[in-house]
Write a structure and sequence with these properties.
By secondary structure, this protein is mostly helical. The chain has 16 helices and no strands. The protein starts with 7 loop residues before the first helix and ends with a helix.
């Protein structure tokens, strides 16, 4: 029997799971508020810009949080200098992205997303990204220290503030039009992320001092962070490019097949705004496990404790399935109950019954990918994402031309989950069989 006392991985996982559970409850209320205040049409527009948002977040962060977490955990560097060497680079990248959005936002909304009302929301993404990047880097530092409490408290505070902002702001902005309401939804991330940054600063040690040496960029630190961060972020960017292309391919093919734009926006909003968040609800457990796994495996693997690392990966998969299987059974037997309770709708139940069992692969995918990144195998993780994205994009194009409506999106998503999870599992097993 594993003793919780003295087992930092278990302690970290429990803290993150408790925090994740609280965050998910607040997030659930946020989704309820969004669904009821901006409606299916508003959710459809928000979901159309979400892949672009995800892609830009991946580019803006450039894998820095994972790299910092891994290097801080190994404790062979000046940890404060690691953070301060990367912050100016991160902010520069964010400014460039903001300028590009001003230049090409109109083209993306009108020609790629085929939804002119998404323009203001796209521009707002540029203002949000710097705050997300800074808070992510700070979280990476605390993860490396295996101090999960700041992350949990900052996340909960962030979501509560965002919920309050949405409740107050949406009724005001929706009077000007649905596009302004959706733009405001994106912009609330500025307030919430700023709150998160302030909370994280509060948890720095009282004797925390910054010297001139800490502030001076160190080329070796930057090189090492980029060495880990670029393959990690390439994995995210590849996946994000796939999601970025998703609404573009979807709308192009389905309109060509005779489906109306209103039908596409409505069904797309149901799948990505209601169905996917619901069936991926247990994934907050797997994300908590993954976050706790990186510093633990980084430390163990760097000193040759391969069996120890292997046991932790198996434990992470076991916990993920322990949570995922009961959730899947509920989604299969009584999907209308959680749909009605959370979103006050029963639309899209037929999608749930197909996707729910396949999402078991997704639940164990996050710990496997985190293990690869922690062992310095970010390239293998990237290759898995690349293969899955290629299969997903090609199959999406094929399925959408088969006149099966949004089922093309469902089946291509299912293929992606299965392929990537199997690939990551094979490479984790290979790396730890030493």
């Amino acid at each position: 029997m594993i003793k919780i006392k003295g087992n930092l991985f278990i302690k970290s996982t429990i803290i993150l799971i408790i925090g994740g559970f609280i965050t998910k409850i607040v997030s659930m209320f946020i989704k309820i508020i969004l669904a009821r205040l901006i409606g299916t049409e508003g959710m459809g527009i928000y979901m159309l810009i979400s892949p672009t948002f995800t892609l830009l977040m991946a580019i803006a962060s450039l894998g820095f949080p994972v790299a910092i977490s891994k290097l801080v955990a190994e404790d062979t560097k000046n940890n404060k200098n690691l953070v301060f060497s990367i912050l100016p680079i991160s902010l520069t990248i964010n400014i460039v992205i903001l300028l590009l959005l001003f230049l090409f936002g109109n083209y993306i909304s009108n020609n790629l997303l085929n939804e002119p009302r998404s323009y203001y929301a796209l521009i707002c993404i540029g203002f949000v990204l710097p705050f997300i990047s800074i808070s992510s880097i700070l979280r990476g530092y605390f993860f490396g220290k295996q101090n999960m409490v700041p992350h949990v408290i900052s996340n909960v505070t962030e979501d509560v503030i965002r919920l309050i902002a949405l409740l107050v702001g949406i009724p005001i902005f929706i009077k000007f039009g649905i596009e302004f309401a959706v733009a405001f939804v994106v912009l609330t991330n500025v307030i919430s992320e700023l709150t998160s940054i302030l909370v994280l600063f509060f948890f720095l040690p009282k004797n925390f001092k910054i010297s001139k040496k800490d502030l001076t960029p160190d080329k070796s630190n930057i090189k090492e962070v980029f060495g880990i961060g670029i393959p990690t972020t390439m994995s995210r960017i590849i996946g994000s490019i796939g999601f970025f292309l998703e609404p573009i391919i979807l709308t192009y093919c389905l309109i060509k097949c005779g489906y109306s734009n209103n039908f596409i926006v409505n069904e797309y909003g149901i799948i990505n705004g209601f169905i996917m968040p619901l069936i991926l609800l247990p994934s907050f457990f797997t994300m908590a496990i993954s976050q706790a796994l990186i510093p633990n495996i980084s430390k163990a693997y760097s000193i040759g404790l391969y069996k120890n690392s292997y046991k932790k990966v198996k434990l992470a998969i076991f916990i993920s399935l322990l949570i995922g299987i009961p959730a899947t059974i509920i989604f299969e037997i009584v999907p209308e109950i959680p749909m009605q309770f959370i979103y006050n709708t029963k639309e899209g139940i037929e999608y749930i019954k197909i996707l729910a069992p396949i999402c078991l692969f997704h639940y164990i995918q996050a710990p496997l990918t985190a293990a690869l990144q922690a062992m310095g195998k970010a390239k293998e993780a990237m290759n898995g994402t690349l293969i899955g994205t290629i299969i997903r994009t090609i199959s999406l194009f094929i399925f959408c031309n088969m006149h099966i409506g949004l089922w093309g999106l469902v089946w291509s998503s299912a293929l992606n989950m299965i392929v990537v999870t199997i690939h990551q599992y094979i490479h984790v097993r290979k790396a730890l069989k030493k």
